[in-house]
């Protein structure tokens, strides 16, 4: 047996010497033409420059992350870490194990000690990744995770350079690049993404007696998160595309309501139909779809989706298409399965819509992030009070220190930032997020709800089991806002008219 024999799974037939000699022969050459530059690449340089300016003289290490095991030797579909995607423009399933390194460009490159951090002039970006192996390498046929025969033709160094506009080097060179001057160049890594890389860096720091406080790594993650608070034109275009594709998916689900009712486990059917369109039009769903009929709508993160869909029910669907660049929509509509709201359903729906409109109206440049929630929740509390549900006055409930009773029926916030992550900018500092001010280019959700559980004895009987959320994706503009998800109707009459056009005539 040949000495190139790779370690094989216990069910795999060993490769003979004859096979190893035969397999690399008689293949057409790889295409000579390089791929076009990714449209995002026009924007990524500016993003990298911004992060470079925040950390002069320091080495910045931003990993894509490894493949992650779903079970045994099968992996989840790869999705790069969002900071990596943002700085490289790589989306879909590119590129497991890759690492972006921003290397400080010192005035005297050979001796960083001569150049104090502030003398460093920006950074040079290099993308380290595992380029495809030649067909003579066992990887080609024997590596189920990376081999061309198993996962398709992966990029060469030149191809990924052409796509991203970044200099690319083999991953095998990364340890040496990270070791260079490690005692003199402060290094920061996004720690939680790639355990093996983080361990390697920590070990290099230890063995070179580099003093190190893990806070420095956390500061990089924070800066990368805050870098995404304001979206550039490319990102806004991608979020609009994600919303438009999501509207197409919602429509397809509605058309299938009668089938979902007839098949049983209708919630799953809705999830599946939306998932089909998310995969067909984009990369995937941006988060686990919530398809919650009847009282399930009152479970905020109902992603089990194994319930029935019945004529007369509302179904709350919180779903978003993630496009190939990984930007995702996050849209909720609560719809009557048979096309018409009952009076009780409409009463709750209209209250939530009024709250949402109050939130959208408050989402203006210069407003506080919390103004949106405060505007929406005031309307929610007022309706709960009018229905005799709230055990205290509206003002007492809205008192943040001593009240909060209304939260029994809407425990979640009204807004979050939206982008590559559905809950984008999650590591931004509090003063720039919840304590921050809305600025043009931010994209937030406005998503109030009222959730009246079937088991809630404080709720009038005719309203029990009704849960409504309406969620839209709102771009803050110079003079107000733009609803990116307005292709899906919200007004109850418009919703009924839209449903009438999609459902069979009865
Ligand atoms: N779909 C998650 C959320 O609305 O935040
Ligand atoms: Mn949502
Ligand atoms: Mn949301």
From TrEMBL:
Protein name stated in the entry: Xaa-Pro aminopeptidase
Domain Aminopeptidase P N-terminal: 38-198
InterPro entries: Aminopep_P_N, Creatin/AminoP/Spt16_N, Creatinase/aminopeptidase-like, Pept_M24, Peptidase_M24B_aminopep-P_CS, X-Pro_dipept-like
Protein's organism: Propioniciclava soli
Pfam families to which the protein is assigned, alphabetical: AMP_N (PF05195), Peptidase_M24 (PF00557)
Keywords recorded for this protein, A-Z: Aminopeptidase, Hydrolase, Manganese, Metal-binding, Protease
EC number: 3.4.11.9
Superkingdom: Bacteria
